[in-house]
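Why do we care about 3D structure at all? Because function follows from shape, and shape follows, mostly, from sequence. That is the central idea of this module. The next example makes it concrete: a single protein chain, its amino acid sequence, and then its structure expressed as tokens.
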Amino acid sequence: MQDTGKLIVCTEQGEIMLMNTNGEFLAFITESPMDNFNIRCIAPFSRGFLIAGDNGTIIAYERVEDPKFPYKKSKRPLT
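And the structure:
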């Protein structure tokens, strides 16, 4: 993530994890897409990050102030 010293990492199972740049695991993103969603791209944006997958699906995750759950799936439309 930009200027945070953190990495967003995705697994083949559709899980999204937050890690330090040294590879230390920090947290699972609780609203990961999981089953049958092949994540093709991850991109930072000003409020968090975007993931893109099959069928042109794009999901936004926004940074929140909860250390246990640092990102939440956005309910707002992307503008």
